[in-house]
């Protein structure tokens, strides 16, 4: 291959396709390579036959699940913040002309064996049993500060430099108790573990602001949106964008060097009902904070259905996922699985998490990490 390129992108997963699309739009000459002979990588969406072939070999899917073509099962399901950076990129690049999105119906959090709706407005916040009356007042003062905070306007800082004080110190200033800290840090700021408490508070404040802005954008039951027909539509859309602007694709090429940094365990569950205690909504995310489970990192439950064109009417697909922390990965998922009710069919998958081994500042080669749960 004699041609020269401004950039070589390895892998056609979501992050890689976004990068390829954006840089092609900026008129850089991009070569996009993948070890597989198909697009999407770990971000692909599979129909029922493809899913069974991947995990069950020659076994056929059970007939009661319905037609294979009615399913689009994400390998790495992720809801998107409605006002997040990815949505802004979609709008900026006009990739939205290739995609259709729909709001996610609800967001819940696990506390002491039960699930509670994450409040989506002031009325729900007042009625919520997640916090007691006095704690709600303290939390309200904190949220007022977050909502008015402007990084460029020192008058909104209340004498604090959020780049230097820790998140724990910020919470202490407002007298928030451990349950509220757990709720804010994991259900609103979406941190995966408690390391954020010792880190500068600015990042957490920005994350909570983003949650509120995303709630306001569509005024639905959650701050999330999700593409119709599954997340696998996204890398394909950005690949089309790159190709339109001159990007070159080469599939079936050698892999790059990476190291394993952990494992993820997940259950892909097929059900004939919505998740109990979620008001019978068709799409939902439930976060199980680490402290509630005695873990080092959070567990996630993700559920979608016919409302996002990922399953036939009357069928629901739920994912329960977590980082592996013991020698019994499947047993770690029990708290999340217990929330689902009757499960028609279940697939357990354990896969490695990798990160690159090269030093990008030396070889100018930037390799993305894998998706976490």
UniProtKB/TrEMBL annotation:
One of its GO terms (cellular component) is cytoplasm. Belongs to the Rab GDI family. InterPro entries: FAD/NAD-bd_sf (IPR036188), GDP_dissociation_inhibitor (IPR018203), RabGDI (IPR000806). It holds the Pfam family GDI. Regulates the GDP/GTP exchange reaction of most RAB proteins by inhibiting the dissociation of GDP from them, and the subsequent binding of GTP. It comes from the Eukaryota. This is Guanosine nucleotide diphosphate dissociation inhibitor. GO terms for molecular function: Rab GDP-dissociation inhibitor activity. The lineage of its organism: Eukaryota, Viridiplantae, Streptophyta, Embryophyta, Bryophyta. GO terms for biological process: protein transport; small GTPase-mediated signal transduction; vesicle-mediated transport. Gene3D superfamilies: FAD/NAD(P)-binding domain, Guanine Nucleotide Dissociation Inhibitor, domain 1, Guanine Nucleotide Dissociation Inhibitor, domain 2.
């Amino acid at each position: 291959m004699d041609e020269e390129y401004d950039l070589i992108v390895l892998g056609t997963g979501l992050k890689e396709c976004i990068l390829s699309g954006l840089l092609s739009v900026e008129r850089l000459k991009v070569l996009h390579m993948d070890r597989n002979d198909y697009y999407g990588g770990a971000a692909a969406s599979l129909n029922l036959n493809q899913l069974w072939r991947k995990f069950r070999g020659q076994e056929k899917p059970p007939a009661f699940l319905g037609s294979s073509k009615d399913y689009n099962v994400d390998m790495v399901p992720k809801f998107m913040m409605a006002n997040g950076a990815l949505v802004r990129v979609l709008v900026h690049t006009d990739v939205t002309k290739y995609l259709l999105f729909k709001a996610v119906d609800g967001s819940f959090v696990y506390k002491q064996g039960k699930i509670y709706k994450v409040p989506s407005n002031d009325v729900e916040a007042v009625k919520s049993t997640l916090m007691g009356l006095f704690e709600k007042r303290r939390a309200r003062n904190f949220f007022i500060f977050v909502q008015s905070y402007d990084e460029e306007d020192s008058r909104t800082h209340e004498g604090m430099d959020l780049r230097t004080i820790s998140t724990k110190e910020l919470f202490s200033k407002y007298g928030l108790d451990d349950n509220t800290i757990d709720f804010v840090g994991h259900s609103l700021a979406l941190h995966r573990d408690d390391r954020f408490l010792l880190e500068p508070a600015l990042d957490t404040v920005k994350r909570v602001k983003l949650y509120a802005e995303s709630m306001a954008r569509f005024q639905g039951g959650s701050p999330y949106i999700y593409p119709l027909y599954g997340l696998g539509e996204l890398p394909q859309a950005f690949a089309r964008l790159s190709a339109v602007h001159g990007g070159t694709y080469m599939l079936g090429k050698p892999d790059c060097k990476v190291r394993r940094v952990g494992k993820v365990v997940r259950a892909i569950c097929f059900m004939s009902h919505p998740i109990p205690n979620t008001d019978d909504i068709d799409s939902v995310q439930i976060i199980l904070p680490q402290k509630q489970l005695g873990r080092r990192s959070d567990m996630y439950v993700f559920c979608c259905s016919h409302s996002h064109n990922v399953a036939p009417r009357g069928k629901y697909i739920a994912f329960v996922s977590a980082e592996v922390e013991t020698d019994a990965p499947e047993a770690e998922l029990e708290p999340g699985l217990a929330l689902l009710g009757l499960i028609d069919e279940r697939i357990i998958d354990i896969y490695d998490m990798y990160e690159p081994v090269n030093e990008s500042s030396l070889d100018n080669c930037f390799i993305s990490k894998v998706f976490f749960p």
